[in-house]
Design brief:
The protein has 146 residues and is α/β, with parallel strands linked by helices. It has a single domain, classed as Dehydroquinase, class II (Rossmann fold). The two termini are 21 Å apart. A five-stranded parallel beta sheet has the order 2-1-3-4-5, with helices on one face. β3, α4 and β4 form a beta-alpha-beta unit. Bound molecules: 1,3,4-trihydroxy-5-OXO-cyclohexanecarboxylic acid.
Length: 146
């Protein structure tokens, strides 16, 4: 079983950008935490970040995978090509946001990508990525039993 975690623009700046909003963990910390989870679960995990919408789409179209966790960054709010790319992906997809976008600027309340994902996890910090991966894992291994 192979999962992808895809992060969009500026998420490579975790630990540097506003720590009150995004916490003090660096992008490297996030990668390490996710890889540790995958190792424990014996899941193949690929983690990708790009500041470019087209690169994210190329990556999604190139890879074969069973589940996707995506934080599109600001593309969430206006990335129509990414939205269309996500629409053609038939495996389970969860959108994650580190911050609570509903407590922030008005423009962050709209997600053009959420409507083509199975669910959204918002405002729970980087734990949101783990919760999303857990969902995919339980769904695909039918471990949840409910
Ligand atoms: C974000 C929220 C977006 O509005 C913002 O542009 C980001 C990060 C989050 O994880 O909270 O880059 O996706």
């Amino acid at each position: 079983m192979k999962f992808l975690v895809v992060n969009g623009p500026n998420l490579n700046m975790l630990g540097v950008r506003d720590k009150n909003i995004y916490g003090s963990r660096s992008y490297r910390d996030l990668v390490d935490i996710l890889n540790k989870w995958a190792k424990e679960k014996e899941i193949e995990l690929m983690i990708f970040q790009s500041n470019h919408e087209g690169e994210m789409i190329d990556f999604l179209q190139r890879e074969q995978f069973d589940g996707l966790v995506i934080n599109p960054g600001a593309l969430t709010h206006y990335g129509y090509s990414l939205r269309d790319a996500l629409e053609t992906i038939s495996v389970p997809k969860i959108e994650v946001h580190i911050s609570n976008v509903h407590k922030r600027e008005e423009f962050r309340r709209k997600s053009v990508t959420a409507e083509v994902c199975d669910g959204q996890i918002i405002g729970l910090g980087i734990l949101g990525y783990i919760l999303a991966l857990e969902y995919l894992y339980q769904k695909l291994t039918e471990k949840a039993g409910f």
